[in-house]
Amino acid sequence: MGKDLTWSEAIEQVMLKNSYFATLKLLHEEAPKLKSFYGKTPHKTINERVQREDRFTRIAPGIWALSNFLDKLPDHLNPKVEKSEEDRQKITHSLIQGMLIEIGNIQGYKTYTPDKNSLFLKQKLCDLTTLQEIPQFSYDHIIQSVKYIDVIWFNSRLFPSNVIEVEHSTNFKNSLVRFVELQDFQTKMTITAPQNRFERYRDEINKAAFTNISKRVIFIPYEKLEIFYNKQLELRELQIFY
Fold it and tell me: Which of 14, 87, 121, 179 is the most exposed place for a label (fewest CB within 10 A)?
């Protein structure tokens, strides 16, 4: 079937079978199957094709669609469908959470989110995580606060290795208060948000209430997160082919 397909045609076929869009992860997994021959780094070719060719349109971080079929996309992914600011924030929040969960899975962590029903493309976030309930790793009052953090990566002993909050529009305070509960643990603390919110984040993290964790929290802009997500997918492919 795929003997004579070019890479662009293979990518197009994957998108046609997946409601006209695909994540880079899906493209990396499925497009090579439609080729009779490919080298050791097909992911690099795939990434280059979707970025270079007009037949493909980036609709979200790490997600591409067929430019001629945008009107057939689900409304929450269709860039032509008018959305309220609240809807756009919810969609972006869920997409970033999905990326964080997938990164954690690729790195071998146990992953958890309290957000069970929001969608990452066509999948519920809870279907991406490896844990459906938060492990009882500490006192109950700590668990009750921490369990609302957007994404948590747990190590093999089920202690939190990294707690990550997606701050698309809120004021950072609630996230940092939850992080404070983990100040006695060897846990990484991460905030991801649009780059233009960094000043607001800095104002909040420098308040006296967060002195104990101010040097431990990392701020990652969405743009860098997307780059890291793509690199993680590439690394996973390299591990398969080498």
Answer: 87
Tokens of 144: 């009750």
**168-202 pLDDT tens trace:** 888 899 999 999 999 999 999 999 999 999 999 99
Domain residue limits at 17: 7-81
Find the length of the chain: 242
Question: Tokens 């079929």, residue?
Answer: 69
β-pair type (217-221, 188-193): parallel
**Alpha-carbon gap, residue 136 to 98, rounded angstroms:** 23
C-alpha 168/C-alpha 58 separation (Å) is 20
Backbone angles phi, psi at 25, to 5 degrees: -60, -45
Beta bridge partners of 153: 111, 162
What residues pair up with 111 in beta bridges, in sequence order? 153
Alpha-carbon dihedral angle through residues 83, 71, 57, 100, given to the nearest 10 degrees: 50
d(CA 89, CA 159): 30
Number of structural domains (the chain) is: 2
pTM for the model? 0.83
Shared domain for 62 and 138, answered yes or no, is no
